[in-house]
Amino acid sequence: MLNQRMTPLYSKVIEHARENPHSFHVPGHKWGRVFPQFAKETYESVLRLDATEIAGLDDLHDAQFVIKEAQQLLANVYGANTSYFLVGGSTVGNLAMLCSVCSKNDIILVQRDSHKSVINGIQLAQAEAIYLAPDYDEKTGLSIGIGLATVKEALNSYPNAKAIFLTNPSYYGVTIDLREIIEYAHTLGMPVLVDEAHGAHFGVGDGFPRSAISQGADLVVQSAHKTLPAMTMGSYLHFNSSFVSKKTIEFYLQTLQSSSPSYPIMASLDLARHYMANLKEDEVLSILESSRKFRAQLKEIPQITVVELDETVNSTVDPLKVTIRTKCELTGIDIQGLLEDKGLFVELANEEYLLLVLPLAPFHQSEQIVSLIRSVLKPYKPIDRKIGEKKIGIQKISSFPFKKETVDQCKIEYIPIEQAVGYFIAEQIIPYPPGVPLLIPGEIITNETIETLLKLLEAGAKFQGHTNIKQTGLKVFTIDDRKEDEK
Ligand SMILES: Cc1ncc(COP(=O)(O)O)c(C=O)c1O
What we know:
Blueprint: H1 8-18, H2 37-47, H3 66-78, E1 82-86, H4 89-101, E2 107-111, H5 116-125, E3 128-132, H6 148-157, E4 164-167, E5 174-175, H7 179-187, E6 192-195, E7 219-222, H8 224-227, E8 235-239, H9 246-256, H10 263-277, H11 281-298, E9 304-306, E10 316-317, E11 321-326, H12 332-341, E12 348-349, E13 353-357, H13 366-377, E14 397-398, E15 410-415, E16 424-425, H14 447-458, H15 469-472, E17 474-479
Parallel strand pairs: 2-3, 2-4, 4-6, 6-7
Antiparallel strand pairs: 1-8, 3-14, 5-10, 7-8, 9-11, 11-13, 12-13, 15-17, 16-17
The structure holds pyridoxal-5'-phosphate.
């Protein structure tokens, strides 16, 4: 084990800042000296870290010194062959992973409830996705990940697929054991890529799920900024593969990321790794205890239920994620609004659920937060609510019948939502958060999806890039029956 007490990048940047250097290079704020006066004090300490690739401070795209050492410490703590700092979130990691394993017309097996960056990555690589629907927990309606049986069936039908792409954990923190899938894929010489955006803290100790890299995954992205104390956009990519070329992944990382990566973000990634690596066993136990206590106290509030998976399900829930289901006339979004009025902001809300992300630190405000939620909900009567169907992806394995070659023979039109059943969608429809597309271009619009969409709209859900979806309708492909010469 390397010395995990070291913070090579952060320490070097601080050392440079302490020397009060004269800056005749970018960035233009000159270590914070040139800045709007009213905001100077607020930004001052961060701008003193906002360096660039000057002598001694290394270069993310050709790491030789302090960034290399910081990334080695990172790889060491997760047990990866090589690890990389990302300054464009797991988004850029997903794009780079996908471009590295597939090219034009290659087939890739992809979990249907993936984040939009995965769908965009497939489009960028011009690959063809075969979507695998996850299993669902009957008790909660939540996705519990892809089963081995689904993977086997898909690989039987598509033995020439280039890779398998999984998302684990889900946004709600539901996580599965990946080992069987990875071992099976590896016997066929196929790499497994994992979007572990919400699991950067996995492997921190007993009581937390195991990280994907420790289970043998080939490439893994993690949003350090989501659950570790890193700045927003700060993420990690881990490489541990004999099936994927390290050179190719490095090529795409430098192609897709800025040539001026943020030093405050990178230094915070160094510190986030330090934080995680140095958590003591009793601190981990205390985090787990805080989570248990918070859940137990929330369970006493009659207007809500704390979501727990069916006991027969082979998945576990990340202790940092607490999902609450409404059990009163209010939707999750209504409750979110009431809590925001009291200064409490949750991670996600929809018609049924609210998701709270706990800190990776002992949490002492449990009683105060629970009593706030209790008082906000007091005027509302508890009622029984039917659990809604959350399912997306109708078939277990689907390649959309609407292929890229057919697109040229089509025109694109907007159709009122209620009349869109049976059409092929021509755009992504993305409730945000969680950013998992409800519809992906080429997918057939079913009654089920329209019902879900209408429910989400009624509950006040936000759709990225579609502020006016009710008025504009859905963008669909229709057959272009104009004669060739009229086009
Ligand atoms: C499952 C999943 N993957 C990837 C991302 C993108 O991560 P980032 O925000 O770090 O770019 C998100 C963001 O919410 C996500 O939920």
